[in-house]
């Protein structure tokens, strides 16, 4: 707990938007820290009150929102979207298999990487449509749809404590409904990002870039501020994501199992 287009890249290969790499790296470091505390709290029973309270929840949500939003932006860059979507999907399935084998009490179904892979495939399929839409209105609509559908996993429309209406139970009875945002009452996942509502946030990122790329001043600013170490982390989030949890668990085993 992160980027491509079916046409030619918008920027020369020699140029990068270092600010996006920087934000991605900072978010990844935050995620690693969050997961480290998760392991300490739930695997090693160490009390960290702020982590299990509102502060911890807001921290977790800020990480998720940023990664998904940035992934929507990043869809614009690159040349092999199908390959990228496939890699993300297979990586998500790998995490599912590993957690089923080693953490069967809390497996991961439809985790962040599985969501990313599905989002990419969806974007590839609907590119002819979304490219015809006006970016400013589409950005606003995507944000509104995300807000109104944020609680869809909890059988309602609304955002956090803001409740609009309950959704019918029949939507949540399919064993594969969790993929789209309609989990059954018995569904359990240690990391869960269904296609909806999160695809709307992904779309918001996509359309924000459609607006930003028209402003040369903003593009020039985004290319400044290169910090080599953080930029490298931001460019390699996927392999770091895949190895960070096993490394954390190994470290904690060495510390606590002496």
Could you characterize the architecture of this molecule?
The protein is built from nine helices and two strands, in the order H-H-H-H-H-E-E-H-H-H-H. With 258 residues, it is mainly α. The chain has one domain. The longest helix is centred in the N-terminal third of the chain and has 26 residues, at 18-43. 28% of the residues are buried. The chain has helices spanning 18-43, 54-74, 81-102, 112-130, 135-149, 195-212, 216-222, 228-235, 237-256, and strands at 156-159, 162-166. Strands 1-2 form a two-stranded antiparallel ribbon. The chain is 60% helix and 3% strand.
**Structure class:** mainly alpha
Largest sheet: 2 strands, antiparallel
Number of domains: 1
Give the ordered list of helices and strands.
HHHHHEEHHHH
Average pLDDT: 90
Helix content: 55-70%
The radius of gyration is 19 Å
Total number of beta strands: 2
Q: How far is the N terminus from the C terminus? A: 30 Å
Strand content: under 5%
- Helix count equals 9
Strand order of the largest sheet: 1-2
Contiguous runs where pLDDT drops below 50 for at least 5 residues: 1-14
The 3D shape can be described as globular
Quick summary:
With 258 residues, the chain is mainly alpha-helical. It contains nine helices and two strands; from the N terminus they run αααααββαααα. The longest helix has 26 residues, at 18-43.
Please write out the topology.
Layout: H1 18-43, H2 54-74, H3 81-102, H4 112-130, H5 135-149, E1 156-159, E2 162-166, H6 195-212, H7 216-222, H8 228-235, H9 237-256
Antiparallel strand pairs: 1-2
Helix pairs in contact: 1-2, 1-8, 1-9, 2-6, 3-4, 5-6
């Amino acid at each position: 707990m992160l980027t491509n287009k079916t046409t030619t890249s918008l920027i020369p290969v020699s140029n990068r938007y270092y600010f996006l790499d920087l934000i991605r790296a900072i978010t990844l470091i935050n995620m690693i820290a969050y997961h480290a505390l998760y392991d300490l709290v739930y695997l090693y029973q160490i009390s960290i009150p702020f982590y299990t309270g509102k502060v911890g929840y807001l921290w977790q949500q800020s990480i998720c929102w940023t990664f998904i939003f940035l992934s929507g932006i990043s869809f614009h860059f690159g040349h092999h979207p199908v390959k990228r979507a496939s890699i993300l999907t297979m990586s998500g399935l790998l995490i599912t298999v590993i957690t089923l084998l080693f953490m069967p009490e809390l497996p991961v179904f439809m985790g962040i990487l599985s969501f990313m892979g599905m989002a990419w495939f969806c974007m590839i399929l609907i590119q002819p449509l979304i490219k015809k839409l006006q970016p400013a209105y589409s950005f606003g609509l995507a944000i509104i749809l995300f807000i109104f559908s944020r609680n869809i996993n909890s059988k309602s429309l609304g955002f956090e404590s803001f409740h609009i209406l309950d959704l019918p139970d029949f939507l949540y009875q399919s064993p594969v409904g969790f993929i789209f945002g309609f989990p059954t009452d018995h569904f359990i996942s240690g990391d869960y990002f269904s296609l909806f509502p999160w695809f709307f946030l992904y779309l918001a990122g996509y359309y924000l870039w459609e607006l930003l790329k028209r402003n040369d001043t903003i593009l020039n600013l985004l290319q400044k501020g290169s910090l080599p170490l953080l930029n490298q982390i931001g460019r390699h989030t996927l392999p770091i994501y895949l190895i960070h949890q096993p490394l954390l668990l190994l470290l904690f085993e060495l510390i606590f199992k002496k």
